[in-house]
Amino acid sequence: MTAAQRLPLYDLAFDFLPTIQGVWWHFTDFLIYFMLLGVGSLVILSTFMAYRSQRKRPVIAVFVLKRYFKTLIVLQWLRIFSFIFTLLPGSSVQCLYTPTEEQLQGPASDLLQGQAPSEGNSELWAPPETLYDILFRIDPATGCGDLMFSSHTIFAVLCVMIVWDYFPYKGTKAAISAALALLVPLTLASRKHYTVDVFTSLYVVPIVYELMRLKMPDTDTAEEMQHRYGLVFQTDKEDNLKYAVIVGNQSFRINEDQLPADFKEPADLTFTLPSGSPLHKGKSGPGGGGFDGPYIHLRKDTPPRSPTFEDGLRNLVPQVSPEESV
């Protein structure tokens, strides 16, 4: 790149935000790590705690991680194609280029021709020089040129999308949203990205996330999990009030919040009243002679044993007193 191409672009936000340096310059990186750690902790907790997402589906850690990394891969590929074909001069401290006195006193055309002299480079300027550096040197904090669009904002917005989509905690949503709101001005104040880099990420990430969720939804229905992973959900044979999932040849008990959204319980236990029963005819309630319909439905919490006629009488809803049944 020529000396002119190395000069930072003008950004209106830089005029309003002071330049931060030192420890505060690294604060955006710490904030990203905090957000990633928070989402990771929620994913780990989902293996021990059962709760349902905003879409009333059980939160399954594998599906959350799959959603995050699938979306991240697509976004990073879009970002790579963007900054490979359009080179922007970095505005961060390690990327700054300061023209020498000789360049400033000479004709302006000198700034537009040839490679920029190394005398104008920052002391922190350290581009990769060998193939090994290009392939294996990992430096996520002090790189130059990978500007469009902001990777800091990609990670942050993706964390916000995951939390709002899967984890139904108001406090967690507020914390992750506040972290994003703090990250945006700090990223600009540290001069790691231009406003266009950050702003583009703020709308590209939600668009890609929602498109991928619509085109590639989580396979978390009972039918899909049985077809893809061999998981069979059913009522526990030992206790009709609990549920189990069959994995291979083993059965594991689960609670109701871990059931797929489309899981259907077996039909309520019913039996027919004798035709001569006084409850078979008439209206239920005060002044009535019985209960409309030929069936008595047991409550959901009825113990799992063979029902008797007395069980049906005790579990009628509404209850019918002996005087009303005469």
TrEMBL record:
Its main location: membrane. It holds the Pfam family PAP2_C. GO terms for molecular function: ceramide cholinephosphotransferase activity; sphingomyelin synthase activity. InterPro entries: Sphingomyelin_synth-like, Sphingomyelin_synth-like_dom. The keyword Electron transport does not apply. Belongs to the sphingomyelin synthase family. This is Sphingomyelin synthase-like domain-containing protein.
